[in-house]
Amino acid sequence: MTHIVSTGFNTGIADGDLGRVATRLAHMVEIGCTGAEITAVGLDAVVDCRLILDRVAGLRKIISTHDLNYSMHAPIAINLMDETHADIMARAATVSMELAAEIGAGVVVLHPGRVSPQNWVNRQDQLLQFELEQLGPVADRAAELGVQIAYENISPNPRVIAGQETSYSLDPRALADQLERLKHPAVMACLDISHAQQGAGLWGFDMLEACKVLGPWIGHIHFSDSTGLPATFPTGSGNEQQFFGVGDMHAPQGFGRTDFAALAASLQLREGTRVVIELKSNFLAHAEQQTLAAAQSFADAVNEARA
What we know:
Blueprint: E1 4-10, H1 18-31, E2 35-39, E3 46-47, E4 50-51, H2 53-63, E5 69-73, H3 86-103, E6 107-110, H4 117-145, E7 148-152, H5 158-161, H6 172-182, E8 187-192, H7 193-203, H8 207-214, E9 218-223, H9 238-244, H10 260-266, E10 273-277, H11 281-306
Parallel strand pairs: 1-2, 1-10, 2-5, 5-6, 6-7, 7-8, 8-9, 9-10
Antiparallel strand pairs: 3-4
Helix pairs in contact: 1-2, 3-4, 6-8, 10-11
């Protein structure tokens, strides 16, 4: 049994230039990647929640050039717990499934619902149910298209730290509970390792134990390191956060405090899981190869532990 089947990077924002995607994918193949995650925004393949067919065709041609295990990251702004914007959120999620199917990406990463802390305190059960009602039809469409949804545990982003929003998925155990409520064959979990480390730092739970609880749902992994320290003071940029070692660092293994060896030894996950590396561009500039090697070693360790 092979639990982790591929490792690679996300493609980053294309800003309308599909040539960037072509160059990035060719480079990934050259350095030994076996998978890649396409960033859906910035491709101009979707506008007004509609496929732009000539852009889709151009992207499909580029992607089909390489024998990689493809996934796609849908817009982070999609929020299936947003009652005010329910229609557009559902349309954006659905067209993401359609774009993935068109380009041959077998997995679409979505972020779970976020709401104001006060709304969560007052209406937790109703909001969880509303999300399921929104997610179910999107999952049905994904299943029709042969695509899987990977629901990703989120990080304590600046809006969370500022008290403007919160999400149950900051805790991987709560994400497991919500996926259990849904029990849809097209929906699994994306474990973002760094996000789990940060959620544990914010809320004080055991990161390794929480990841083990989520384990049976995990079919996708985002790989990067962080300290887990929340960015609770002002910083001028992501680079300053990295200097201090706070927030969503998107750092190479070893630059943060995640115990990857313990995680690999204890993590239960699904067969066919893909590992996608997410690095900030400054780290990518000098630590790309070493992080790919670290991710491949992590995958090997997980597979050996599960053999």
